[in-house]
């Protein structure tokens, strides 16, 4: 189970100020903005506006896929990012160049093994487990088989993403006891537009699952 039995919540794919405010009010621990190719992609200027009302200590996470490091550093500085999520083929050495903590995405496919994460030991602050796709670097909207992972390495906190929503996040928490859960499309009314009721329901479901697990 995560520290003190509390699963952190990351609401990703935020594109506007109102959705960010709703996520924070609902209990999100981190807000994610996507700088990679996606229906939820934002420019640095759009990210600044979306994150304007996000207070400390809520995290501000920028999502990148094999981006130019100069662009990553510009986004970190301009948007006040507190962490970056690398969802491409970034190397451990690439991760070391970040001035903020790195969340490294690891794709979980049918032949997944945690040895694929081992190169990032001492190079990433956390791992993010997302469903493998041959044509997408994350954001698949599909869940992987949570109970098939086996023992998760203890050297880094881990996030779980992929196909999560208010109706199944409790099962994920029960199966894996992750440090954090990450949701985007599962709380949307349209790509890049959050359904505020779903955001609130998702956060409430995580808190209810934590109470159940701690019994």
* Strand adjacency order, main sheet: 1-2-3-4-5-6-7-8
The number of distinct β-strands equals 10
Taking all Cα atoms into account, the compactness measure Rg is 16 Å
Number of domains: 1
User: Percent range for helical residues?
Assistant: 25-40%
The largest β sheet comes out as:
8 strands, parallel, barrel
- The H/E string reads EHEHEHEHEEEHEEEH
Low-confidence stretches: none
CATH homologous group name:
Aldolase class I
- Average pLDDT, rounded to a whole number, is 92
What is the C-level CATH assignment?
A: Alpha Beta
Distance between the termini: 12 Å
Describe this structure in words.
The protein has 215 residues and is of the alpha/beta class. The chain has one domain: Aldolase class I (TIM Barrel), CATH 3.20.20. The chain contains six helices and ten strands. The strands form two sheets. Strands 1-2-3-4-5-6-7-8 form an eight-stranded parallel barrel, surrounded by four helices. It has a two-stranded antiparallel ribbon with strand order 9-10. Strand 7 (158-160), helix 5 and strand 8 (180-183) form a beta-alpha-beta unit. The radius of gyration is 16 Å and the shape is globular.
């Amino acid at each position: 189970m995560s520290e003190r039995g509390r699963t952190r919540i990351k609401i990703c794919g935020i594109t506007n100020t109102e959705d960010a405010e709703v996520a924070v009010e609902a209990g999100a621990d981190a807000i994610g903005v996507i700088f990679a190719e996606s229906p939820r992609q934002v420019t640095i200027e759009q990210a600044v506006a979306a994150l304007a009302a996000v207070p400390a200590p809520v995290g501000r996470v920028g999502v990148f896929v094999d981006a130019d490091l100069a662009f990553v550093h510009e986004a970190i500085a301009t948007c006040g990012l507190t962490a970056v999520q690398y969802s491409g083929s970034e190397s451990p050495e690439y991760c070391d160049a970040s001035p903020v903590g790195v969340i490294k995405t690891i794709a979980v496919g049918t032949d997944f093994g945690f040895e694929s994460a081992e190169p990032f030991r001492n190079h990433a602050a956390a791992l993010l487990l997302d469903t493998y796709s041959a044509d997408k670097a994350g954001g698949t909207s599909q869940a992987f088989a949570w109970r098939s992972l086996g023992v998760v390495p203890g050297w880094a906190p881990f996030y779980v993403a992929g196909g999560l929503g208010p109706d199944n996040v409790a099962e994920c928490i029960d199966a894996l006891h992750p440090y954090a859960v990450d949701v985007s499309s599962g709380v949307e009314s349209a790509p890049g537009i959050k359904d505020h009721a779903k955001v609130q329901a998702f956060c409430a479901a995580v808190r209810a699952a934590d109470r159940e697990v701690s019994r």
